[in-house]
Design brief:
Shape: elongated
Structural class: mainly alpha
Number of helices: 21
Largest sheet: none
Helix content: 55-70%
Order of helices and strands: HHHHHHHHHHHHHHHHHHHHH
Length: 532
């Protein structure tokens, strides 16, 4: 359901696919046009006012900066409490699975409550309030994924231990553990010999020593080779070892590289899968599957609970993902020039964003006295440009920068959301870190834990997302209006309408409706929350 694989972001200039895209010139055109527009804005400001910008917005966003930085540092450091909590779960100090879940949710709610209360008490402007609130949500999602995954793995570990005890008990009837392994290895050798003869394996030479067989590998090596072939098939590798699609489910993670396919010696349970006793084979298969869930599946070097360390958690915090895994696909090294490129892109794009906000949005902040239609018209384009720049800063500059520093190889932080023909497609594509979190820990989790249908799970996911967005707007504007909440919930019937075959087939119409909705949505929310 959630997969990780070595991938590059679509706007990354090192992405080979971007250099062959037919529309790559429009990317250059966008930045060139925006640069010329900003320079023209500066020139007109100098001619009119005698200065480039008045920097009133800079004064506002720099207010109480040290306190904000210290508050954010405390927020980030407090997440380190996840490690002793996960260790307590691993050691069985928390009485039950349900108690751990309840304590986890209460703890995360307390973190959010403290952050919101602190924000209100400081009376920060909307930028500082919005930043700390959004970062609090990010930290809470990271904490939730880390603790939930380790809690599930603790449950898996207990099941594996129970199944192993049953397996050992079953082998006693076959003469003991070692005798059962020998019998399973004998079956593997027989299967290998039969398959070798079937494909035309040469017979035994006349001058061969006595006892020579036609089997090229021993039983354990044969199991390892079968694991390799199965892993290649699961990873979507072609016969020549090249990568195709990556198809994994749940917590299984496989990168599309032949070198990354794990090929370790088989465990006793993997050998006992071939035992002639159906009971032993079934128990061994169950135990082997549980053991695979407890081991990182990129390289297989990490096994739960060896991952529960401050060092591992620190790397997870640095990694730009909201879904915790035992292992992620990694890059070989940090490229200083790449980090420098993303840093320059960040500051350059932020300068453009600052200019647009201070020149074309803040002076046009709507009031009740202004025309509603005129406010929408004046703010539509500035908000859209600001949205595009903010998207580029977060998902192309910041996420890629942290991915490089943390050796994180999966850079697919977004898909081609600009081609969306419906709102559900947009919600899946524009912010993949949040989408993957909601997919695993809300949508899939509610279906598994509470036996909800897909439609009910989707409604719960939208409800939680809408409530979180409305909370951010309430903190930023210090008003409770539920405008954004209503618009997000309204997406559910719109999604159903978009799935009507006649509408679904017309991609151009769907994309046009999507862009009109996005253009109207930002200024509409601004007018609603500022003026009403």
């Amino acid at each position: 359901m959630v997969t990780f694989a070595p991938r590059k972001s679509l706007f990354d200039i090192s992405n080979e696919n971007s250099t062959t895209n037919e529309f790559r010139g429009f990317f250059t055109l966008f930045w060139t046009s925006l640069f010329l527009f900003v320079v023209r804005t500066y020139v007109r400001s100098i001619e009119t006012n005698g200065y480039i910008l008045d920097f009133q917005f800079a004064t506002m966003i720099s207010r109480d900066a040290i306190t904000l930085a210290l508050s954010d540092a405390v927020l980030v450091l407090s997440t380190g409490l996840c490690v002793p909590f996960a260790k307590a779960i691993a050691k069985g100090w928390i009485p039950s699975y349900t108690a751990g879940i309840i304590f986890q949710h209460l703890w995360q709610a307390a973190v959010l409550g403290i952050a919101v209360t602190w924000t209100f008490n400081r009376q920060w402007p909307w930028v500082q309030s919005g930043f700390l609130t959004l970062h609090s949500f990010v930290m809470i999602m990271k904490m939730h994924s880390y603790v939930s995954t380790n809690t599930d793995l603790a449950y898996t570990h207990k099941r594996a231990a129970k199944v192993l005890a049953q397996l050992k008990e079953a082998t006693e009837a076959e003469g003991g553990w070692d005798a059962a392994l020998q019998k399973a290895e004998a079956v593997i050798q027989q299967e290998e010999s039969a398959s070798s003869v079937a494909v035309g394996t040469p017979g035994i030479p006349d001058d061969a020593p006595a006892g020579t067989t036609t089997s090229y590998v021993d039983a354990r090596t044969a199991v390892t080779l079968r694991q390799r072939l199965a892993a290649r098939a699961a990873a979507g590798l072609n016969a020549d070892g090249t990568a195709s699609a990556v198809k994994t489910t749940g917590t299984r993670v496989l990168p599309p590289t032949a070198a990354a396919v794990p090929t370790y010696p088989p465990t006793p349970a993997e050998i006992l899968v071939h035992h002639p006793s159906e009971k032993i084979a079934d128990l061994a298969k169950t135990h082997a599957e549980l053991e695979r869930e407890l081991r990182g599946s990129v390289e297989g070097r990490v096994r739960w609970p060896a991952n529960i360390t401050l060092r591992d958690f620190a790397w997870y915090q640095l990694t730009p993902t909201l879904v915790y895994e035992l292992e992620y696909p990694r890059t070989e090294r940090i490229r200083p020039l790449y980090v420098f490129e993303k840093t320059v892109a960040f500051f350059g794009t932020f300068a453009l964003l600052y200019t647009i906000v201070e020149t074309f949005i803040i002076p046009l902040t709507p009031t009740k006295e202004q025309s509603f239609a005129r406010s929408l018209l004046d703010l539509a384009l500035p908000f859209m440009i600001s949205y595009l720049l903010l998207f580029y800063i977060i998902f192309e500059c910041i996420c890629n920068g942290f991915a490089e520093l943390s050796y994180f190889a999966d850079r697919q932080f977004y898909d081609d959301w600009w081609n969306s023909t419906s709102w559900d497609e947009f919600s899946r594509k524009w912010n993949r870190p949040v989408h993957t979190f909601l997919l695993r820990h809300v949508y899939a989790s509610t279906m598994t834990s509470y036996k909800l249908t897909r439609q009910s799970a989707m409604f719960v996911t939208f409800l939680l997302s809408a409530a979180a967005h409305e909370l951010v707007m309430a903190i930023v504007t210090k008003k409770i209006r539920f405008y954004l909440f209503a618009l997000q919930i309204a997406q559910i019937p719109l999604i159903a309408v978009g799935r009507i075959p006649a509408i679904r087939r017309n991609k151009l119409l769907g994309n046009l409706v999507f862009w009109i909705g996005l253009y109207a949505g930002f200024p509409l929310l601004c007018v609603a929350y500022c003026a009403y």
